[in-house]
Specification:
By secondary structure, the chain is mainly alpha-helical. It has 21 helices and five strands. It has three domains: 125 residues, HUPs (Rossmann fold); 187 residues, Alpha Horseshoe (Serine Threonine Protein Phosphatase 5, Tetratricopeptide repeat); 170 residues, DNA Cyclobutane Dipyrimidine Photolyase, subunit A, domain 3, CATH 1.10.579.10. Helices cover 49% and strands 4% of the residues. It is globular and about 80 Å long. The structure holds flavin-adenine dinucleotide (FAD), ligand DLZ and iron/sulfur cluster. Ligand DLZ binds next to α1 and α2.
Length: 512
């Protein structure tokens, strides 16, 4: 039966289910670069270039294996600009008997694909995405009857199921499930990022860079230099480099931040993983292999594996379990407009400047910058949850709604009321001072609460807790923090709240 098989931009894996039972004589595999997907939020130019170049290289490989490929570049004059209209156009021209697609990773795109059966007038088969390690059914079965969802227990089940860092007697390797207490070291003086590899640009990538420059230069973010891997072979090189050179230090400095060092010991693998160039199980198995070979300490291997086998799968589980209602949550009623400093408007807050600068230059910042700098600031300032989510979705090369939304709405903004985070990740300047060397470069002082030099995080932290005190006084893990506030004399409380109001005013005016 002649089949049109659609591969979406984040489905670039040769094991993707939509390629199973491919008939080389009858079938056509289709990929399309469309304006609608590149602009529904203004994606970072590096992200668009990465995805388009990776899509083109993937299509080239398929064609080399003898597959009939229909590739629609963005600048093809007949390109109709949306996934739906491109599939429609292909069906009219090729006249297949059916369309096959692996389930899109985002609810929005799944809803689009589900409508095709009616609009196209032919069968549209949606296959499961088997690249993830837990199915939607697995997550739903695990979540059923649980009062509170917690990643740790979901992760332990997956460790057992996939036999990762497990001993033959069923106990976790090293006797513990979790080595986080070893993984929160502040940076050492003079600490630098591990050396990184870069990749030679093919003509295909050079063409894509010219296209992205011509069409999307007005989006926030710097396009060149462009050093991303764009093929599976290159992504595998990134993985091997990380395991050999970087992973040994990953655990210790997972939460550290250093001025001028965007990467430290993080893997930079999320963009490749989320687009399908790498698979989660192969990454976890390589990390475990490095530990078993004595090359990597257990706290680093376990800490890293937990991010992928634990957090990544759990986050996806939450998204699909709670969508579509999840997207409308705003449990703290956060509605203040996103300030211009998120788009690079000058600020005297060095930590925010640094996190936004890394984002602009690399379409990347590491987890603690996302959570404890830009995320923490948005939480404390009460920034609009949708605007903040759109920002995270646009600016990071690894961002797709299924992973961005629970991380932003749930983990960073506590907007899901505590599904992802057991308590808000709210912190004052003290935390940032401890975990980074940012404050020594800053106009503000992390030890000062009020006045011109006061670190904005300090007053905003207390103001946030007090704004939501009714909720937090009834929260299992928050009342002890408010008991400190209760001990402040009224004049100190008033001064802090006045400082917070001034800080928000300056933020809105663009003078913070
Ligand atoms: P490493 O620190 O090296 O971690 C290894 C891998 O673990 C990552 O590549 C990633 O695949 C996985 N991982 C780690 N933490 C998480 C997590 N919380 N959720 C899911 N996977 C995780 N990650 C995305 O992939 N896409 C996003 O759009 C995204 N948005 C985020 C928004 C906010 C507000 C926050 C706080 C976190 C977000 N994350 C997102 C999670 C995390 O910050 C990134 O996965 C990580 O920074 C990617 O860099 P890395 O590959 O160097 O990760
Ligand atoms: C993010 C993105 C971009 C920028 N461009 C395309 C594209 O041109 N074609 C495509 O198939 N996918 C693209 N994507 C990914 C989609 O927006 C979306 O995240 C995936 O289809 C998963 O649902
Ligand atoms: Fe950030 Fe405050 Fe430190 Fe400045 S003093 S870098 S604003 S935490």
């Amino acid at each position: 039966m002649s089949t049109l098989r659609l591969i979406l931009g984040d489905q670039l894996s040769d094991t993707i289910t939509s390629l199973e039972h491919l008939d080389l004589a009858e079938d056509t595999v289709m990929l399309c670069e469309v304006r609608e997907e590149a602009t529904y939020v203004p994606h970072h130019p590096k992200k668009i270039a990465f995805l388009f170049s990776a899509m083109r290289h993937f299509a080239q490989d398929l064609a080399a294996w003898g597959v009939r490929v229909r590739y629609v570049p963005l600048d093809d004059p007949s390109n109709t600009s949306s996934l739906t209209s491109e599939v429609q156009r292909a069906v009219q021209q090729i006249k297949p008997a059916r369309v096959i697609v692996t389930e899109p990773s985002e609810y929005r795109v799944l809803a689009m694909v589900k409508a095709w059966q009616n609009t196209l007038g032919l069968p549209v088969e949606i296959l499961p995405d088997t690249r993830f390690l837990a199915t939607h059914g697995d997550f739903a079965a695990w979540a059923k009857d649980k009062k509170q969802l917690r990643m740790e227990f979901f992760y332990r089940d997956l460790r057992k199921r996939y036999d990762i860092l497990m001993e033959p007697d069923g106990t976790p390797t090293g006797g513990q499930w979790n080595y986080d207490k070893d993984n929160r070291k502040p940076p050492k003086a003079g600490m630098r990022s591990a050396p990184r590899i870069s990749h030679k640009k093919s003509t295909m990538t050079t063409d894509v860079l010219a296209l992205v420059k011509a069409r999307f230069s007005h989006h926030f973010g710097v396009l060149e230099p462009f050093y991303y891997a764009v093929t599976r072979q290159q992504a595998l090189k990134e993985l091997d480099h990380f395991i050999d050179q970087v992973l040994p230090h990953f655990g210790d400095y997972q939460d550290a931040m250093v001025a001028g060092e965007p990467y430290l010991y993080h893997s930079l693998l999320s963009s490749y993983l989320n687009a399908g160039l790498l698979l989660p199980l192969e990454i976890c198995q390589k990390a475990e292999g490095a530990y078993r070979a004595g090359h990597v300490p257990l706290n680093a291997a376990e800490g890293f594996i937990r991010q992928i086998l634990g957090w990544r799968e759990y986050i996806r589980g939450v998204y699909w379990h709670l969508m579509p209602d999840y997207q409308d949550r705003n449990s703290l009623n956060a509605t203040r407009s996103l300030p211009a400093l998120y788009w690079g408007h000058p600020t005297q807050m060095f930590c925010m400047y640094e996190a936004v600068r890394h984002t602009r230059d690399h379409a990347y910042s590491h987890h603690i910058q996302r959570l404890m700098i830009t995320g923490n600031f948005a939480l404390l300032a009460g920034l609009d949850v949708k605007q903040v989510q759109d920002w995270y979705l646009a600016v990071y090369s690894d961002a797709y709604e299924w992973v961005e939304m629970p991380n932003t709405l749930g983990m960073a903004l506590y907007g899901d009321g505590g599904v992802v985070a057991s308590k808000p990740y709210a912190a004052s300047g003290k935390y940032i001072h401890r975990m980074s060397n940012y404050c020594q470069h800053c106009h503000y002082d992390p030890d000062v609460m009020t006045g011109d030099r006061a670190c904005p995080f300090n007053a905003l932290y207390w103001d946030f807790l007090v704004r939501h005190e009714t909720l937090f006084r009834g929260h299992q893990r928050m009342p002890y923090v408010l008991s400190t506030w209760d001990k402040f004399p009224p004049e100190k409380q008033n001064a802090i709240r006045a400082q917070a109001a001034l800080t928000l005013k300056k933020m809105d005016e663009g003078t913070l």
